[in-house]
Fold this protein.
Amino acid sequence: MSDRLRLDQAAKFLLGVWMSGIVVAMFLIVPQYVGLGDAGRIIILHVPTAWITTVAFAVSAVYSIRYLWKRRPADDAGAVAAAEAGFLFCALATVSGMWFANIVWGTPWNWDPRETTILILLLIYAAYFALRSALDDVERRRRLAAVYNLFAAVTMPFLLFVAPRMADSTLHPNCAFIQGSHCDGIWLELNGTRIGQLGDVVLALQGVEQRGDLAVAQVEVRMPGLREVALLEPSFELASGKPADRPEFPGQQFLLAVEGVDLANGRVLLNMEAPGSGLLSNSRTFWTFMAANIGFLGLFIWLYRLRADVLLLQERLARREAAYELPA
Amino acid sequence: MDPHISPQSAIETSSTAMPSEAPLLMAAWAVFRKDVRSELRTRYALNAILLFAVSTVVAMSMGMGPLTVSRNADLPIIQAALLWVAILFAAFTGLARAFVQEEEARTAAALRLSARPTAVFLGKLLFNLALLLLLVAVTTTLFIIMLRVQAGNPGLLAALLLAGSLGLVAATTLIAAIIARASVKGALFAVLSFPLLAPLLVVAIQGSANAIAGRGWESGVGSLQVLAGYTIALFTASLFLFNSVWEP
Amino acid sequence: MNEPLRLIVNDVAIEYGARRVLAGVSFELCAGETLVVAGANGSGKSSLLRVICGLQRPARGTVVIRTNGTVLRPSEALHLLGWVAPDLYLYRELTALENLAFFAAVRGIRCTRADLEALLDRVGLGGRGDDLLAAYSSGMTQRLRYAYALLHRPRILALDEPTVTFDARGVALVEQVIARQRDHGITIIATNDPREERFGDYILRLAQ
């Protein structure tokens, strides 16, 4: 018993040191990024909290299954505690994400697939707590909350499937993990498909020509909130095969880039690029990021287990009070 | 046969000695018919749902007048979104009734003691579906007349409305059974249902916009498939979970 | 061929929130036996009957129904249980006959209108079958509860305050029902009326 207690103490101490280290590394080790400024450091906080939100949802669902199976109060306490910790992380991820998007992308909300899913997740958590507070009988509250939790989990695959289809592309890096989004950009042709869509932006290819060792494309851009049609001229370095000049979309802070050119046939591969893509290719950032993931996971586990213990203790106290008929 | 039973009373001769379990679908049909009969006499849900739908559509058309194609290229998606929002919120006012009524009139115990849980669920699901289809028919007709919607592909629109209604009922019937046992019922139904209905709503609105814009069937097949998958997944999950909701 | 029906109540405890109403009740009954559960208001009589009928979850303990050597699943037990209680409510917006026809249909019992009218006759509601329940007096409602409970000829009959709101003819009906149930099943009566204790082969007294 005392051995376990000492181990717990040691783990808590280690977690504290680890998290402090991450906060320090976030500002001292992670380099500043061009176009992002200090806002780029958010990756260390934002991404781990966001994915721990989904971990928490899964943990809560597993506890709910176990509760319906075995009907033990401890499983319900686990489900509630995981949901509460998940809600906290979910709120953190949403707020930090909106803040970052406002600074870097120029808009706090644009129905990016990840924004959609996290918003719905936030609503599901809120509904779960609302349901619990509306049920008076303890056993019934546990049972029905577990049912709702699992029922919500059944709809998650559909949400993950549908969300990317609301907008064609994503501003988030690593969009390869988001099914259905066009991470690879779109090929437009002068003598074929000239109009395409990136996110909520409609593009039309007007021309492509060679200027020295650069290929320059003329692209007409229409987007919501923009009264006039804008003409952008992104360019492509033919020798190195890399985008050269990447103009900003008007009024936004994400960029239009040419990622491939086929001059003979008048074809151009266009893509949008948000500042922040490729952050993790720096190894200092990468390792700090991985450490942050581990740290936040540890923080989540500690948090939800502590909360579960508190919930069980509360119930035991209430029972004892009733047994001795103490006034509430 | 039990030898101790004296065949004096009519009921004792009429029923078999050891009643076997009622066939599931017949019992579900009986629950459905009972609910329809009760509803036709009291009209709690019917009045609420239809008046709500009419008010919403009238309010929309008063606020905007007929929208015309020449003024807005995004017209189909606007109309599809308005139509589904009207349907959704009218559904929130009435679809919980079937279960809430049993708890409020305290008849749930009599039902629990007589019918298998799955029969109760299927009966209520069928009742909700009938109610919702009536609601969708009324709302859509009014909407098309008052907002002068020109549905380019009426067949596809009807198919999407039907598929969307099936999904809506599959998702909300279990939630109605859950909130019937809670202390605050009205607001909770919408709060619990909306996050689960988000994927359905997005798909249904996008598909309906295509139908209103007059695109062909191939533009709506994807939406119909997602709606069918959603309906099947939620219906199956409900069948598994309903016993845990219905038990005392 | 028939092993007698057995109802085994094992260590059933009932709680409301954190308040314990009933702590560890056990008994066993065979077909033909009648038990009277006596006790003051709030002693847990009604709750015990609800637990036996599967309408309430005990905080602890089990209720087992055995027949022909097998333990019945809850869905099978439904067909053996009949329950009459002040908190048994039927559909007020339907007529008595519609109510009975509905409960017969969900139980899978084939019966004609004449069968149901005969049942109503038996509980003293002859000729009132087409009236809405909303128009019934409390005594008539109690009579209809008997029709509901006897519809499927249950072998375990749980009667909670069986004669409440009844006149002399109603009490005679209850006596007749209990006497007939003695021939083929188990009867459990919850009451705080000392005159009704004479129905029981056994009496279980619950303390406050």
About this structure: The interface with chain C takes residues 2, 4-6, 9-12, 14-23, 26-27, 30-31, 33-34, 37-38, 41-42, 105-107, 109-116, 119, 247-248 of chain B (CB under 8 Å). Residues 61 and 146 of chain B are 6 Å apart (CA to CA). Residues 117-146 of chain B form the longest helix (30 residues).
